[in-house]
């Protein structure tokens, strides 16, 4: 029974790796390559977006900004533990999400393509955590379904 599970995982691995590569390229394209070069800009005040939302009361815009950053790295939190047992540890997955987000923000600053924001790193990292939690919740649901079928 366990060998079948491992074989199915091995069969799916090239697909998962391909999806991950496409996802990473898409994130880099959206955050770096699809932007015009201008001057270097940064916003390093923590929770700037939340404060702006409260100050301007423009909730839809700022919630879109925050939500977009949460959603952007959510798939990473799901894909990394699916690819490698190394990322089954939440700390490693969160560190990878943090590092990827920091890389994007630093590259935006260095290349002048976008605004380097501390809030983006924070919200991207929260998205990675959410993705990791969703991965494990789905995995546990799947395992519980298999146990129920086995007991019938």
Walkthrough of the structure:
With 152 residues, the protein is mainly alpha-helical. Helices cover 80% and strands 4% of the residues. It is built from six helices and two strands. It has a two-stranded parallel sheet with strand order 1-2. The longest helix has 34 residues, at 118-151. The protein is globular and about 50 Å long. The relative contact order is 0.15. The model has no long low-confidence stretch (mean pLDDT 89).
Concise account of the structure shown:
This protein is mostly helical and 152 residues long.
Radius of gyration: 19 Å
Number of strands: 2
Regions with little confidence, pLDDT below 50 for 5+ residues: none
Proportion in β-strands: under 5%
**Could you say which overall geometry the principal axes of the C-alpha atoms support?**
globular
* Oligomer classification: single chain
Biggest sheet statistics: 2 strands, parallel
Biggest sheet, spatial arrangement of strands:
1-2
Q: Measure the end-to-end span.
A: 16 Å
Structural class: mainly alpha
Task: Provide keyphrases for this structure.
mainly alpha; globular; two-stranded parallel sheet; 2 strands
Q: Topology of this protein?
A:
Elements: H1 2-33, E1 41-43, H2 48-56, H3 59-72, H4 74-83, H5 90-111, E2 115-117, H6 118-151
Parallel strand pairs: 1-2
Helix pairs in contact: 1-4, 2-3, 3-6, 4-6, 5-6
């Amino acid at each position: 029974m366990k060998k079948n599970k491992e074989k199915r995982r091995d069969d799916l691995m090239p697909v998962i790796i391909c999806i991950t590569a496409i996802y990473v390229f898409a994130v880099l394209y959206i955050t770096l390559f699809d932007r015009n070069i201008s001057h270097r800009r940064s916003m390093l005040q923590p929770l700037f977006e939340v404060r702006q939302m409260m100050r301007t009361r423009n909730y839809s815009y700022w919630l879109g900004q925050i939500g977009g950053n949460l959603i952007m790295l959510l798939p990473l939190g799901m894909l990394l533990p699916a690819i490698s047992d190394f990322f089954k540890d939440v700390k490693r997955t969160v560190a990878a999400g943090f590092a990827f987000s920091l890389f994007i923000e630093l590259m935006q600053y260095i290349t002048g393509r976008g605004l380097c924001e501390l809030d983006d790193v924070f919200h991207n990292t929260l998205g990675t955590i959410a993705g990791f939690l969703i991965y494990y919740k789905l995995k546990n649901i799947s395992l519980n379904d298999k146990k129920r079928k086995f007991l019938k």
